[in-house]
Specification:
The chain has 147 residues and is of the alpha+beta class. It has 4 helices and 5 strands, in the order E-H-E-E-H-E-E-H-H. The C terminus is likely disordered.
């Protein structure tokens, strides 16, 4: 059995393309080592991430995110057990200059949309965030920490 969770947060400081490229590279390395997959989306100073993998690794990673001073207003939106991964790789989507080369793991989710037939709550939240990045996390009745 695998664990999946989706959280939303605000960036405590602005992130430019260089910063986001570094987050992408570091997160891909760390998450691969921890057996995690999913997708991180950044838009307009907000983050939403779906993490999936072994329960202990998902919970430990979420704990690091909550404690990370680069994140503000961390809200847990969905947490569930799953049988199969929805995202077989870990990727990241963010607005970037169209002229810039795309780093490994960059996802076109924000520009191309999502063609998956997956109608899970987690996937629907990512689609919602694509169109409403500045909406308050509490709009989805999130909470700060796991109970």
């Amino acid at each position: 059995m695998l664990q999946s969770l989706v959280y939303m947060s605000s960036a405590a400081q602005p992130f430019d393309d260089v910063d986001l490229d570094e987050v992408l590279a570091y997160s891909r390395e760390r998450n691969t080592a921890d057996g995690l997959t999913g997708m991180l989306v950044h838009r307009s100073g907000r983050f939403m991430q779906l993490l999936e993998g072994p329960p202990d690794a998902v919970i430990a990673t979420y704990g690091r995110i909550v404690a990370d001073p680069r994140h503000d207003e961390v809200r847990l939106l969905v947490e569930e057990s799953i049988h199969t991964r929805r995202f077989p790789d870990w990727t990241m989507a963010f607005d970037r200059d169209e002229q810039a080369s795309t780093p490994e793991g960059f996802n076109e989710f924000l520009t191309a949309g999502d063609v998956s037939a997956d109608a899970s709550r987690a996937r629907e939240l990512l689609r919602w965030f694509r169109n409403h990045p500045m909406a308050a996390p509490t709009a989805s009745l999130g909470k700060h920490r796991r109970d």
